[in-house]
Amino acid sequence: MAFWAQPYLDVDHVGLTEEGGQVVVTLYVGVTASGENQPGIQSAEYRAVSVSLASPLGGRTVVDGASAASAGPPGQGRNLGPSPP
Length: 85
Prior knowledge:
1 helix
């Protein structure tokens, strides 16, 4: 999963729900220790995290969990730690 984020933000954890024909991935980000009390700058970095699925993606659709959250309550999911650099 790739995304844009401000330099002082980092992935805290990843929510992953595999159901039927879709895989819902929700990234939870927070301020890094080095980013605390730093002024916000108007730039972004392109980042990526890897997640392990219970079964191959195949024809399932990958859904952004942040967008899916507005469509209803989140599913159970499971939390995964951030991927090693």
